[in-house]
Write a structure and sequence with these properties.
This protein is mainly beta. It contains one helix and ten strands.
Length: about 160
């Protein structure tokens, strides 16, 4: 009698090499509409503060419990284009009328065609913008920077296959 064989999985197993995803294929969706071509996204994160306390009757052990949760702003760098969409969204915040939108950073496979991971920014709004440095002696792209404040971060597996083993 033979032992049952476990089903094959695409997740990392001891002794199996799984290629990590590449960091250069991604896009930004705002309300499920693709917005621009971005060269860099930073700040995807979450921080859970801790409260330390001593247990009653046991002064030598310090315990910790979770406290407030905060989300740093997500910063987008992108090539300057003629599209006014992101600028107009920023201007609503400048005028005191914050337009909160759900935004998603979508990571694509190495071919750039299939979604593999998605980070959803809940109730995002533009909080900071920096124009492209202009230099007549440079041949670089004109890169603008936009930071989005948000109230929550969700991570979803994409619809595509996991990296090859």
């Amino acid at each position: 009698m033979t032992a049952p064989v476990a089903p094959a999985t695409s997740s990392a197993q001891p002794g199996n090499w799984v290629d990590p995803y590449r960091a250069y294929n991604f896009k930004l969706l705002i309300n499920n509409v693709v917005e621009g071509h971005f060269t860099e996204v930073t700040g995807l994160g979450v921080k859970v503060e801790r409260i330390s306390y001593r247990e009653a009757g046991n002064n030598s052990i310090v315990r910790a419990i979770p406290s407030r949760v905060s989300y740093p702003p997500v910063t987008l760098k992108f090539g300057l284009t003629g599209s006014p969409d992101l600028w107009e969204w920023l201007m609503t915040a400048v005028e005191g009328r914050v337009s909160r939108r759900n935004a998603s950073i979508v990571l694509l496979d190495s071919s750039g065609s299939t979604e593999v991971l998605r980070w959803n920014l809940l109730n995002a709004w533009p909080q900071e913008w920096y124009g492209a440095p202009l230099d007549a002696m440079s041949r670089e792209l004109a890169i603008e920077t936009l930071s989005l404040a948000h109230e929550g971060l969700q991570r979803e597996a994409g619809s595509g296959p996991a990296p090859a083993a």
